[in-house]
């Protein structure tokens, strides 16, 4: 446990320093990371929490907006914690710096969660720290940032993968009780987080449930079912304000509008993973622009073009894919890494 704590501190401090340098001009000037996209609404929500005008889990009304009426924010479902937590820092640091520091904390949290998941799943310390740092500094985190602060809370992802592997390989962490507690606690965090991260986790849990039931592994069925139920419960609690608002005022048909065309536009395509929409290396950025971004029709441009993985992750996923295909072609499917099947499942879920 002591070594794991040291590893987490090392990875976390490294990511914090890099992010601090990256956002230093914003911190010293007291300005938000960005004024574009959804950042004004994010700042408004955080400020409303800081002023005590709204509270988590109850319908959100802001009386100083939409005059002479109040602004009603609960007809559109949104997570509370990514906006409420930074509001607690606003009295000390101001609105802009509080949100910037929270974004840095989320990226540090991503690195730490990766280190923890790596240690639990048996990776070496150097590998865990190194890849944890890379994960905390993933291009995705800088792309989302303040604009989509609820998506910048991607630190739950390694822990969700860890839970799936634990349930898949029937692992124990210290004891059965500790394993139960960890799986359920992480499931609650998944439910309270963004539904984009929750949805694929629930899908994999359902696949595991079917497999465990077919094997009559009833103890595992109970744990997996409990994990699924707790995650759903977290989602219900997270959206209590919306459910209450709908009961009081009726459903807003425009609040959730991901139609079929939205699925096509925002779904993942393979080049999204390879070509960055923004990169420090100017030559690489220009090649990406010429080879991909200028070729994407205007109607298809959107958030999917922010999914660039990074060079190390691309090498890793290519290595995993080639090695697994060779083993399958050699009739050695039993030797294929379980991470390959997880990645294949995620691709099947996300790809257009």
Task: Looking at this protein, list some descriptive labels.
2 strands; two-stranded antiparallel sheet; 352 residues
Q: Describe it for me?
A:
It contains 19 helices and two strands. It has 352 residues and is mainly alpha-helical. The protein is globular, with a radius of gyration of 21 Å.
Poorly predicted regions: none
Q: How many runs of DSSP E, i.e. beta strands? A: 2
End-to-end Cα distance, whole Å, is 42 Å
Binned, the helix content reads 55-70%
Helix-strand pattern, N to C?
A: HHHEEHHHHHHHHHHHHHHHH
**Form type:** globular
| Main pleated-sheet profile | 2 strands, antiparallel
Report the β-strand fraction as a percent range.
Answer: under 5%
Question: What do the pLDDT scores average to?
Answer: 88
Structural class designation: mainly alpha
Give Rg in angstroms.
21 Å
Number of helices: 19
In spatial order, strands of the major sheet run 1-2
């Amino acid at each position: 446990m002591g070594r794991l704590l040291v590893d987490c501190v090392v990875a976390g401090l490294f990511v914090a320093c890099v992010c601090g340098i990256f956002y230093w001009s914003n911190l010293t000037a007291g300005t938000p990371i960005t004024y574009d996209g959804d950042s004004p609404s994010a700042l408004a929500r955080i400020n409303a929490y800081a002023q005590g005008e709204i509270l988590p889990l109850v319908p959100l009304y802001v009386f100083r907006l939409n005059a002479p009426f109040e602004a009603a924010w609960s007809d559109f479902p949104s997570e509370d914690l990514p906006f409420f937590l930074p509001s607690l820092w606003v009295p000390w640091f101001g609105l802009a710096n509080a949100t910037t520091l929270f974004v840095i904390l989320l990226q540090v949290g991503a690195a730490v969660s990766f280190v923890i998941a790596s240690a639990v799943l048996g990776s070496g310390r150097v590998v865990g720290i190194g890849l944890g740092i890379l994960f905390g500094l993933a291009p995705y985190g800088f792309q989302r940032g303040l604009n989509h602060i609820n998506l910048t809370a991607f630190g739950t992802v390694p822990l969700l993968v860890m839970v799936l592997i634990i349930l898949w390989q029937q692992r124990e962490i210290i004891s059965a009780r500790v394993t139960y507690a960890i799986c359920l606690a992480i499931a609650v965090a998944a439910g309270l987080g963004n539904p984009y991260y929750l949805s694929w986790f629930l899908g994999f849990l359902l696949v595991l449930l079917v497999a465990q039931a077919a094997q009559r592994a009833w103890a595992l069925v109970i744990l997996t079912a409990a994990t699924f139920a707790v995650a759903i419960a977290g989602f219900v609690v997270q959206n209590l304000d919306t459910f209450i608002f709908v009961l009081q005022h009726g459903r807003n048909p425009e609040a959730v509008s991901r139609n079929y065309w939205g699925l096509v536009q925002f779904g993942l395509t393979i080049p999204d993973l390879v070509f960055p929409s923004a990169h420090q290396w100017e030559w690489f950025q220009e090649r990406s622009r010429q080879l991909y971004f200028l070729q994407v029709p205007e109607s298809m441009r959107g958030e999917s073009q922010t999914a660039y993985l990074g060079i190390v992750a691309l090498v890793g996923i290519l290595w995993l894919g080639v090695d697994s295909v060779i083993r399958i072609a050699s009739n050695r499917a039993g030797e294929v890494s379980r991470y390959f099947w997880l990645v294949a499942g995620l691709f099947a879920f996300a790809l257009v």
